[in-house]
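Students often ask why we bother encoding 3D structure as a string. The short answer is that it lets us treat folding as translation between two languages. Here is a chain of 180 residues written in the first language.
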Amino acid sequence: MKNIELILFDVDGVMTDGSIYIDKNGESFKKFNVKDGLAIELLRSHNIKTGVVSGKASEALTLRSEKLGFDFIVTGCKNKLPRVNAICAELNIGLDKVVFVGDDVLDLPVMQKCGASFAPSDAHELVLNYAQYITNAAGGCGVVREVADKILLERFETLDDMYNVLLDKIISDDVKSMEQ
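And here it is in the second language, the structure alphabet:
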């Protein structure tokens, strides 16, 4: 996993627990884990691109994805492999440089072609059978953070070394903003 350049995530069941809350007006809400947000920033600080490729589309998903600063946001896409191939073509990388994190059977065609695949511990049984790595976390409970840590620990000796890059960037950005 030292050569990974892109990590793509399914959303429902990976970044969320798969629940959809609907109010009396038909508006849907999703619960996201704040720990995953820092994981995206951590990956960015190590020059790893990120994105979501979700079978569903919702305003909540788009807002959260944009706020996290994903490099690629693909929603409402059930046949994910062609979209993942297009992203790879845009970045001029092969699927062997991609990690995909999925939890349900629609994710299998991508998971089977990528360089590495992860599934949350509560993923569908078939996905668990095909995933190369299974997180300790269930969907919506820090899966993204666990994946980021696992991938980056392949490049660093310790968690301290890995997170110091992010902390140094944050401190540097704060100093620059105070100087302006």
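Translate back mentally: The first strand starts at residue 6 and ends at 9. Keep this in mind for the problem set.
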